[in-house]
Automatic annotation (TrEMBL):
The name this protein goes by in its record: Regulatory-associated protein of mTOR isoform X3
Gene Ontology cellular component terms for the protein in this record: cytoplasm; TORC1 complex
PANTHER family associated with the record: REGULATORY-ASSOCIATED PROTEIN OF MTOR
GO biological process: cellular response to amino acid stimulus; cellular response to starvation; positive regulation of cell growth; regulation of autophagy; TORC1 signaling
Alphabetical UniProt keywords: Repeat
Composition bias type Polar residues, residue spans: 655-675
InterPro entries: ARM-like (IPR011989), ARM-type_fold (IPR016024), HEAT (IPR000357), Raptor (IPR004083), WD40/YVTN_repeat-like_dom_sf (IPR015943), WD40_repeat_dom_sf (IPR036322), WD40_rpt (IPR001680)
Coiled-coil region: none
Keyword Repeat on entry: yes
Any one GO molecular-function label of the UniProt entry: protein-macromolecule adaptor activity
Pfam families (UniProt xref): HEAT, WD40
Length: 1103
């Protein structure tokens, strides 16, 4: 016989055949190998070769072992092994009746067995139900006993093999009772004592108990409770099982129950709960054979099954996305299209359907075609305004995957103005939705296979909308997707961006040469006029430039059109920073050129993004363009090309897209560069040649190289979003943990609550005495690396955070230990000007704001539990602020105030607005114009989301009501100060009238009633104040001056004490004070001095 084959040996001593088969198989394989070698030797004579058969995959089933004899019982068939393999139900019933065990109806005869009504193929009959139960039980025994790979091979790959081995398990049980051990190859572990056989005996017993009454009285057949009981056992396992439990043995039975309409709904519900346990559960279900069952159920029209089937398929595809091919082949995608389209279905289920469809079309062209024919684009676009944020997110991702590298779906989106509908989600209150929208727009740009003017116009609109809307989004996740999206513009319009980089470098070299030029009598041309040469409407007139030789305009090869950079590459590294927006903005005046210029500016600004991951991603994109320029520029090429270049006219602007990519020598005109000034004396002048117009080399057409572009950078946002579906999505566990009074989370939060309550109570006693107390007991002193600029106390922990240039440090005020010293990872020229503790009552975060307008939030800020600080988020809170090193006048840097109750961050500083950021949605709430012509120096909020006070550099104090529209929110201006306002404090004490405390550098302290136009109290103290701090909860304040002292007053003007010296045996005079800060609750004052010392003073000595 050939191989592979199935052999059945139904005879005594059958095991001998199995053993001999292995020997003969090895012998035959060796003979075939010898024949094969002989054929190879005689191949020249035309003898055909044969393939070597493999007997390893042959299956053998033997009735008994080598030394055993089959039973000789007159009540059993002679070929009992064959009967077990071919008629298992009949032989199982006969053997069960013959056993001397207690049965419900002991008088069942062998003759009655043949009268059991029904058909094996009809599960609604008694005989058919027994066959169904037998299949479920033998499958369960095999799945729980056999190794997974062997189970897949024998019970799932072939229906005939699976049926034979299920029946073989029965044969083993029956023949074992007659002292025979059936043998198989491959060998199976013993299964005849598995507990599930008892369930089979019970099912037979219950069936036979009904048989006499059915035969005699024609009573109605009562279905077996087997499947219902097994579902209950499975439910118990799901509900009460421990985390480290073994897989449920009922899983194969649950799949069999899916075939029954009676129990299908319950089985699907339990199966869904099982799959929700995690990827391991999905893999188990797939290994047991869930796939064909749930695939067939997609043909059902029952509405009650829709939520369950969608959930189950979402779980499957989240773990194994290769199932997409089977779904499309069987038309299963139509089921999910109908679910997604039906708005009467809850949004949670439509979200799952969107995820399933997104998985079907992911990198699978047949799936994209099928979904596009099903109008998936219009279905998704119609629901972008749904209230469910997760649905909005997955509608975007589904669209993105649908038109990814599939032009037809993209043009369906164009017809439905999909990009404009996605624009509305760029301001969505959920960051993940914004990121998904940006991702979808990015794939929209990249999905064009044939470029046209219409496609380019749309892509430019999309890119400009993205750069204008989300460049300064508060969430780094969104900005990452922005970089990924914009890279497609760079890759598809690479020539245009390379030309921009070239123009920037040329303008840079001109700026350098203007300073270094030896021609003192030469007229200098402004950067604006020089860059106008790039415009196609402008001609370069020789009469307008004195001293420029006419020989300087030459044609160069396409490779050397970039080469004029020479050795000045270092000027290209940070174009926006070196050149500034003013000079770059004049490069091209064409609308297309301005689009690419703005995109280039946007990418360059993202190079310096506060979040290092976003900055690195952006740098990969911009460096790709800069490297294109750099790799093509060699000094030798430049010199040779300039001497030997042709004097002919440049090609027409219509061909300008090929300048940087062709290889035929068609060359664009070079842009005048400053380095040519140094070479002009060496090159002969051609007085008979006039200058020609120089066309703009920035093209609105895409690169001619077609095909799929390789991304320069990628993000893991989509993969992360998909992974969420593989994890448990039910909220039961989360809710239970929150309500679990014995959980670790509950104990930690309860401890923090009690600690905070105790701290406030103890601090309240200090506050009552503070108005007449001397704040002079030194409780902490240390020296740091730089002069401290900002100090802030943690309200409930003994932590003091200090800003030290571009670093921040955290000290334990009780022990004096330094907990953290960490760099802010910002611009080296910037300095931290704001420090705040966020969420201080629970798990605290530390926020650091720098004078370049960036804000960073850190977790694990105190390095407790041996964990380094982790950057949680970072964004550009103010884009228009410049670091102090770039300005000559005094600056306030970035000024911030965190409001815990409304989760709002107010930022201002060297700008004319106050910007409010919503930390929950990670969106800009609003911009409130200050109305001042100077910087804002300090800010305070009332803590309830209403009033906000801003002190300005001109001495004015402005009060805003945030409940009003931004342009109407300024409700009061006080101009009683004449110098820089050092501090504002909206009093949070329990008093009948709302008050505002302010102080300026000239030494005048004022208290305002928010309802009146002038101050109600004034305190004049010493001149030359450098720092001011007011206690939030009690009526005292402190001021530091250049006179080497710190003075403490109460708000009634009474001087409480002055601090001039440090404590200790070698007590030294304190240095000029750079910053002051009171503890939010306790009466403790922290002072930072210019000699890099930090000291804390309390109203009571250390306990």
């Amino acid at each position: 016989m050939g191989a592979p084959s199935i052999y059945v040996y139904d005879c005594s001593n059958a095991g001998i055949i199995v053993e001999s088969f292995q020997q003969f198989a090895e012998q035959h394989e060796k003979e075939y190998e010898m024949e094969k070698q002989a054929v190879q030797q005689n191949r020249a004579s035309g003898v055909a070769g044969t393939s070597t058969p493999s007997y390893k995959n042959c299956i053998q089933l033997a009735a008994c072992a080598a030394s055993q004899i089959l039973p000789m019982n007159p009540d059993l068939p002679a070929d009992i092994f064959t009967s077990c393999l071919t008629t298992p139900i009949k032989i199982a019933l006969r053997w069960f009746v013959m056993q001397n065990t207690s049965k419900l109806v002991p008088k069942i005869s062998l003759d009655l067995i043949d009268k059991i009504p029904g058909q094996l193929t009809d599960r609604r009959t008694m005989l058919g139900e027994l066959n169904w139960i037998f299949t479920a039980i033998t499958d369960t025994i095999a799945w729980n006993t056999l190794p997974r790979d062997l189970f897949q091979r024998l019970f799932r790959q072939d229906l005939l093999v699976a049926s034979l081995f299920r029946n073989f398990l029965l044969a083993e049980r029956i023949l074992r009772s007659y002292d025979c051990t059936p043998v198989s190859c491959p060998k199976l572990p013993p299964t005849y004592q598995h507990p599930m056989w008892q369930a089979w005996d019970l099912a037979l017993d219950l069936c036979l108990a009904q048989l006499p009454s059915i035969l005699e009285n024609e009573d109605q057949f009562v279905h077996s409770p087997f499947f219902e009981e097994q579902l209950t056992a499975f439910q118990v396992w799901l509900t009460l099982g421990s985390k480290n439990r073994n897989p449920p043995e009922q899983l194969p039975i649950v799949l069999q129950v899916l075939l029954s309409q009676v129990h299908r709904l319950r089985a699907l519900e339990l199966l869904g709960r099982f799959l929700d346990l995690g990827p391991w559960a999905v893999n188990l279900a797939l290994s047991v054979g869930i796939f064909p069952y749930v695939l067939k159920l997609l043909q059902s029209n029952a509405r009650e099954l829709r939520p369950l089937l969608v959930f189950i398929w979402a779980k499957i595809l989240a773990v194994d996305s290769t199932c997409q091919a089977d779904l499309v082949r069987d038309g299963g995608h139509k089921y999910f299209l109908s679910v997604l389209q039906d708005t009467s279905i809850p949004s949670e289920h439509r979200t799952l359907a969107a995820f399933v469809l997104a998985s079907i079309v992911n990198d699978y062209r047949p799936g994209q075609i099928a979904a596009n024919h099903g109008s998936l684009v219009s279905i998704c676009l119609e629901q972008l305004g749904d209230l469910n944020a997760l649905l909005r997110q997955w509608l975007c991702l589904c669209l993105a995957r649908l038109w990814h590298n599939y032009d037809k779906a993209r043009w369906c989106g164009v017809r439905d103005i999909a990009h404009e509908k996605l624009f509305t989600l760029l301001q969505d209150p959920v960051p993940e939705v914004r990121a998904a929208s940006v991702y979808a727009l990015g794939t929209f740009i990249n999905s064009v296979t044939t470029r046209s003017e219409h496609a380019n116009n749309i892509d430019q609109i999309i890119a400009m909308t993205l750069i204008n809307t989300v460049s300064y989004d508060m969430c780094p996740l969104v900005r990452k997707e922005l970089v990924v999206a914009l890279q497609w513009m760079v890759l598809h319009f690479e020539n245009s961006f390379v030309t921009l980089a070239l123009a920037e470098e040329n303008s840079r070299k001109d700026l350098v040469v203007e300073t270094l030029s030896p021609f003192s009598g030469m007229r200098r041309i402004s950067s604006r006029d020089r860059l106008k040469m790039l415009s196609p409407n402008n001609t370069y007139n020789p009469e307008s430039t004195e001293g420029f030789g006419q020989d300087r305009i030459k044609r160069v090869s396409s490779s050397s059109s970039i080469s004029s950079l020479g050795n000045n590459w270092e000027f290209v590294r940070k174009p926006c920073e070196s050149l500034g927006h003013s000079s770059l903005g004049n490069l091209p005046s064409l609308s297309y050129g301005s689009v690419y210029m703005k995109l280039w500016h946007g990418l360059c600004s993202l190079d310096n993004d506060p979040h290092p991951v976003v900055a690195t991603m952006s740098q990969k994109v911009t460096n790709h363009i800069r490297n294109q320029v750099k790799e093509s520029s060699t000094p030798k090429e430049v010199i040779e090309t300039k001497i030997s270049s042709s004097l002919s006219l440049p090609p027409s602007p219509s061909n300008r897209t090929t300048y940087l990519s062709n290889s035929k020598g068609d060359s664009p005109p070079t842009v005048n560069s400053g380095t040519d000034l140094l070479r002009s004396s060496r090159i002969p002048s051609h007085s008979n040649r006039s200058r020609k117009p120089i066309p703009n080399t920035i093209s609105e057409e895409a690169d001619e190289v077609a095909g799929i572009k390789t991304p320069l950078t990628t993000s893991q946002f989509v993969e992360w979003s998909c992974a969420q579906f593989a994890q448990p999505v039910s909220l039961e566990t989360e809710i239970e943990s929150m309500n679990d009074m014995e959980s670790r989370i509950h104990y930690e939060r309860e401890w923090r609550y009690l600690r905070n309550k105790r701290q406030r109570r103890e601090a309240r006693e200090e506050q009552l005495r503070a108005i007449q107390s001397r704040v002079e007991f030194q409780v902490f002193h240390t020296r740091c690396s730089h002069s401290p600029e900002v100090l802030t106390f943690h309200p409930f922990e003994p932590h003091l955070a200090v800003a030290l240039k571009d670093f921040f440090g955290v000290w334990d005020c009780q022990t004096g230990a330094k907990l953290t010293y960490c760099a802010s990872h910002g611009n080296k020229m910037s300095r931290i000007t704001a420090l705040e503790f966020i969420n201080a009552h629970d798990v605290t975060l530390l926020m650091a704001g720098s004078d370049d307008g960036s804000v960073r939030v850190w977790k694990n800020y105190s390095s407790m539990l041996n964990r380094d600080p982790v950057l949680l988020t970072a964004w550009q809170a103010m884009a228009d602020i410049q670091p102090a090193a770039k300005t000559t006048t005094a600056t306030a840097g970035l000024v911030t105030k965190w409001e815990q109750k409304s989760l709002t961050l107010a930022v201002t500083g060297d700008v004319r607005i106050v910007r409010l950021w919503d930390a929950e949605t990670e969106l800009k709430k609003q911009d409130i114009p200050t109305g001042a012509d100077c910087c804002a120096t300090c800010i305070d909020v009332d803590g309830v989301g209403a009033m906000m006070a801003v002190g300005c550099g001109d001495g004015s104090v402005r009060l805003f009501d945030r409940r009003l529209p931004p342009l109407e929110s300024r409700v009061m201006i006080w101009r009683e100060h004449t110098a820089w306002v050092l501090g504002t404090s909206l009093r949070k004490c329990e008093r009948s009238t709302p008050q505002l405390f302010t102080g300026s550098s000239s030494g005048d302290i004022r208290i305002f009633d928010l309802r009146k136009n002038s101050s109600v109290s004034t305190v004049q103290i010493t001149q030359g104040i450098t720092a001011l701090a007011a206690h939030e909860m009690t009526d005292i304040f402190a001021c530091g001056s250049t006179n080497h002292c710190i003075s403490v007053y109460n708000t009634m003007g009474q001087h409480l004490n002055t601090i001039k010296f440090h404590e200790g045996f070698m007590a030294t005079r304190i240095s000029p004070v750079s910053c002051l800060s009171f503890h939010p609750y306790r009466v403790i004052l922290a002072a930072g001095c210019v000699d890099s010392t930090i000291t804390a003073y309390a109203s009571e000595p250390r306990r």
